[in-house]
Amino acid sequence: MTGAGKTAYLALVKLLSASYIISSPSVEKCPAPAMPEFAFIGRSNVGKSSLINLITSNRQLAKTSASPGKTQLINHFLIKSEVSSAKSVQWYLVDLPGYGYAQVSQGTRKQWKKMIEQYIRQRTNLKLLFVLIDIRHRPQALDLEFINQLGAWSIPLLLVFTKSDQITQREAAASVKSFMESLEKHWDEMPGYVVTSSAKGRGRKELLGIIEEQLMLSNTNV
Ligand code: GTP
Ligand code: MG
Fold first, then answer.
1. C-beta 175 within 6 A of ligand 1
2. Are 131 and 15 contacting, i.e. CB atoms less than 8 angstroms apart?
3. Quick one: CA torsion of 57, 60, 66, 72, rounded to 10 degrees?
4. Which band of pLDDT confidence, cut at 50, 70 and 90, is reported for residue 26?
5. 46 pocket-lining for ligand 1 (C-beta < 6 Å)
6. Number of domains observed in the structure of the chain
7. How many CB atoms lie within 10 A of CB 200?
8. 178-194, pLDDT tens digit by residue?
9. 75 lines ligand 1 (CB under 6 A)
10. Distance from Cα 60 to the centre of ligand 1, integer Å
11. What is the pTM of this model?
């Protein structure tokens, strides 16, 4: 995993197609883990589905909503792309439900938590988990605890700050600094991060570059 600091890769990957495959209520029901996979997690309403649409340049692909709790299942999207080797590669993007959504019953929340945890810990083809953080807020205990838990489970992750169009560049830099400082005491090698805005199309190239790097490492050409 990339070390501390802002990650900057130039994407050479060319997307050929992106299509919705299936929504699954548990990791057991997900498609066979035959291709590299990249998943998006974070609090409800942080912008997970919007980011999938940004990456695939398709506003209709993942369902987004102004009210939290929109995504409730594990959603698989199949992406076909060409990388620098000019070989065609297939991989999955996965839209997950948000954590910490207060407006559903305790039972439902518990069930989502279990579904997310089992997915994260058991999905063998998961190459990288994108953990989304709303850049407008001070570091939140729920996010920090979740990320520290991922570290304890040794899950490869990248921090993705969202909604950067809502604040100034200076505020964004301060927010990132403050978040990384809050994590620092728990981490020997800090996870990498990318600052994004789905509204302004910010961060797409970096994210695609990181995905491409992982695809080349996993070398699963089809
Ligand atoms: P759940 O599925 O409910 O957990 O939410 P989610 O994390 O998938 O969020 P979603 O992509 O549905 O976005 C939630 C709201 O935030 C929508 O109204 C989006 O239009 C808005 N939004 C997402 N990304 C951005 C962004 O980069 N900038 C701005 N200004 N709004 C954003
Ligand atoms: Mg969603």
1. no
2. no
3. -110
4. very high
5. yes
6. 1
7. 12
8. 999 999 988 999 999 99
9. no
10. 13
11. 0.92
Residue 52, domain member (yes or no)? yes
What are the C-alpha distances in Å from 85 to residues 11, 125, 166?
13, 22, 38
> Ligand 1 centre from 163 Cα, in Å?
8
d(CA 139, CA 24): 31
Summary count for the chain: helices (H), strands (E): 5, 7
Q: Please report whether residue 123 resides in a domain.
A: yes
**Mean per-residue pLDDT, 43-56:** 95
Q: CB-based contacts of 102: which residues, under 8 Å, 6+ apart?
A: none
Q: What angle do CA 13, 17, 18 make, to 5 degrees?
A: 105
Mean pLDDT of 135-144: 96
* Cβ–Cβ < 8 Å for 162, 134: yes
Q: Report yes or no: 16 and 81 within 8 Å, Cβ to Cβ.
A: yes
Asked whether residue 2 is domain-assigned, the answer is: no
Q: What is the CATH number of the domain that holds 179?
A: 3.40.50.300
The confidence band for 85, taking pLDDT boundaries of 50, 70 and 90, is low
Q: Token pair of 211, please?
A: 């995905």
Cα distances from 217 to residues 6, 12, 29, 45, 209, in angstroms, run 20, 15, 27, 32, 12
Asked whether residue 6 is assigned to any structural domain, the reply reads no
- Give kind and range of the element (H or E) at residue 48: helix 48-56
The range of the structural domain enclosing residue 59 comes to: 14-218
User: And the tokens for 39?
Assistant: 């998943």
| Residue tagged 């600091």 (tokens) | 5
Q: Is 48 in the pocket of ligand 1 (CB under 6 A)?
A: yes
